[in-house]
Amino acid sequence: MSAPARIGIVTVSDRASAGIYADEGGPAIDAYFRKVLTSPWEAVARVIPDDRATIAGTLRDLADTEGCCLIVTTGGTGPAPRDVTPEATEDVVGKPMPGFGELMRQVSLAKVPTAILSRQTAGIRGKSLIVNLPGRPRAIAECLDAVMPAIPYCIDLIEGPRLETDPAVIAAFRPKK
């Protein structure tokens, strides 16, 4: 049996990283994957401040050292001065995957007009897919519902472990052979 897939879950928040309030985004992502994924996986969680160098370093570590096939961030995607998660992601990826952000914004716009302010993005670093999500737990689930059907096949294409989903919850798309 192969080792479980490793999934990085990164909460980007000055206040959560300082213990001023509890991290809700990271646990929401973890719960989502526990509901959706049926293949073995383990979370590699981090809670870090809104600092571009720290975010980039964390993403590099999760991809290059921890061997995470998927790294999902929450927070830091808005227009505020400290919101730099997309810039840090762009600093470390070799292949931008703009369709992820486009789809997440489209889905979010159906719920709230301020979704246009969100700057989620995604990209590939080696054998890791990095996806930036918004910070609110409900928005996290909505965005993951939109992009999750494509994530397992993307991981296949970058030679990562096979992720299986529960088709009763989210059906992963893979082309017919």
Provide an overview of this structure.
38% of the residues lie in helices and 19% in strands. With 177 residues, it is α/β, with parallel strands linked by helices. It has a 6-stranded mixed β-sheet with strand order 2-1-3-6-5-4, with helices on both faces. A hairpin with a 2-residue loop joins strand 5 and strand 6. The model has no long low-confidence stretch (mean pLDDT 96).
Ranges where pLDDT stays below 50 over 5 or more residues in a row are none
Report on the biggest sheet.
Answer: 6 strands, mixed
- Specify the structural class: alpha/beta
Form type: globular
- Helical content stands at 25-40%
Residue-averaged pLDDT, rounded? 96
Order of helices and strands: EHHEHEHEHEEHH
Write a brief structural summary:
This protein is α/β, with parallel strands linked by helices and 177 residues long.
Task: Based on the model shown, name its key terms.
7 helices, alpha/beta, 177 residues, 6 strands, globular
Helix-strand layout with pairing:
Blueprint: E1 5-12, H1 14-17, H2 25-36, E2 41-48, H3 52-65, E3 70-74, H4 85-92, E4 95-96, H5 98-109, E5 122-125, E6 128-133, H6 137-147, H7 151-157
Parallel strand pairs: 1-2, 1-3, 3-6
Antiparallel strand pairs: 4-5, 5-6
